Amino acid sequence: MAVMHLTKENFEAETANGIILVDFGAGWCGPCRMLGPIFEELSGEIGQVKFAKVDITECEEIAQKFSVMSIPTIILFKDGKEEDRMMGLVPKDALKDWVESKL
C-alpha cells in the first residue's frame, strides 16, 4: 500500500474511518527524510493500517490543529480521533511494534 499525501482538502475524509498513521514532517527536515523509507516499508508490511504524510510547510493549519511542535511527529488516528503519537526519528522495529500494539 502506498503512502498517501494529505492536504487540508482531503485530511478529514481520509482520517475519518479506520486506523491511519500520519507522519507530520517537512522536506527540509533531515530526520523526516530518514524516516521516509522506513514509513514506506511499513506501509507494505502492516496491511490493516493506512499510512499518510502531511507536509507541515504546506499544511500549517493541520499541524497547528494537532499541536505538532517538533518533527517528525507520527500520530495514530482511529476513526478520526487521535489515539497516540510518537515524536522523533524512530527505528523501524520500534515503530512497527508500537503500531501493532495499537491494533
Describe this structure as you would to a colleague:
This protein is an alpha/beta fold and about 100 residues long. It has one domain: Glutaredoxin (3-Layer(aba) Sandwich). It has helices at about 10-15, 30-45, 60-65, 90-100, and strands spanning about 5, 20-25, 50-55, 75-80, 80-85. Strand 4 and strand 5 form a beta hairpin. The longest helix has 16 residues, at about 30-45. The radius of gyration is 12 Å and the shape is globular.
Keywords summarizing the entry:
single chain; alpha/beta; Glutaredoxin; five-stranded mixed β-sheet; 5 strands
Which helices and strands appear, and what pairs or packs with what?
Elements: E1 4-5, H1 11-15, E2 19-25, H2 30-45, E3 50-55, H3 60-65, E4 73-78, E5 81-87, H4 92-101
Parallel strand pairs: 1-3, 2-3
Antiparallel strand pairs: 2-4, 4-5
- The domain count comes to 1
% residues in beta strands: 25-35%
The 3D shape can be described as globular
Structural class: alpha/beta
Tell me which CATH architecture applies here: 3-Layer(aba) Sandwich
Question: What is the CA-CA span between the terminal residues?
Answer: 17 Å
The helix content is 25-40%
Quaternary form? single chain
Count of DSSP H/I helices = 4
User: Spans of 5+ residues with little confidence (pLDDT < 50)?
Assistant: none
Strand order of the largest sheet: 1-3-2-4-5
* SSE order: EHEHEHEEH
* Total E-strand runs: 5
Mean pLDDT: 96
Top-tier CATH class:
Alpha Beta
The profile of the biggest β sheet is:
5 strands, mixed
Query: Using only CA atoms, what is the Rg?
Result: 12 Å
CATH topology: Glutaredoxin
